Structure formats: structure tokens, C-alpha cells
Amino acid sequence: VSGSQSGNVNVWDLETGEKEHTLDSKSPMVMSVTYSANNNHLVCGSMDGPLTVFDPQAMTETLKIENSHKKPIRSIAFTSDNNTLLSACDDGTIGIHDMRQSQTLG
User: Fold this and answer.
1) 8 has which bridge partners?
2) Cα(17)–Cα(7) distance, rounded to whole angstroms?
3) Which residue in 103, 61, 98 sits closest to 81, CA to CA?
4) Looking at the DSSP assignment, which residues form a beta bridge with residue 42?
5) What is the pLDDT of residues 49-71, one digit of tens each?
6) pLDDT at site 106
7) Mean pLDDT per 10-residue run, the chain (106 residues)?
8) What is d(CA 52, CA 66) in angstroms, rounded to the nearest whole number?
9) Rounded Cα distance, 13 and 75, in Å
10) C-alpha distances in Å from residue 68, one per residue of 13, 17, 56
11) pTM for this prediction
């Protein structure tokens, strides 16, 4: 999976090297992408601050986490239990997002 300057998330076939899907984050630029370890979530962080959550099986957007950051999101990662998403922003803040409750904790 890769992010793009056009705001898309591209999902690639590792065996053929072909692009399988293109997902629109509706953001100007995707800065970071990650899968949850259980493959239930594909998340991208964008240039303008929101996080977009996709269902990787259905290839559809399931959640948009707005107002978590005001500047580009540089890194995102799930905790080992897949229940919490962490995001790091250019402004020096870290976001903590509960994926079970679909809410930002800090």
C-alpha cells in the first residue's frame, strides 16, 4: 500500500507489482499509511490533518477522523491489540484514537 500526492491510497499486488485498487482519501496529499495487524483497518494520514479509515476487504471508507491534527500527519501505527491508533503530527502532537469507540482520546 502506498500514499500519493494526489490524495489517493494505492493498493498493490505484491506478486505481480500491479495496482489493484485506488482509494480516495478526499485529502490533498497522503503522507502516511498503515494496516492494522488483523487486517481490519487500512488508515491513511494526510497533509491537512484528518485520518481516513478504510475497510481493506470491501475497499470502502468507514471512518474519517477530523480535527485530530492541524498539520501534516507524518506517522501512524496501531497498538498490538489493534484497538488504538496512534498518529504523529508535524506540530509535535500525538493523537490517540480508540478504534472500538471511533473517538479521539488525546
Assistant:
1) 24
2) 21
3) 98
4) 35, 54
5) 889 999 999 999 999 988 778 89
6) 61
7) 95 96 93 94 92 94 85 94 94 90 74
8) 9
9) 23
10) 31, 34, 22
11) 0.89
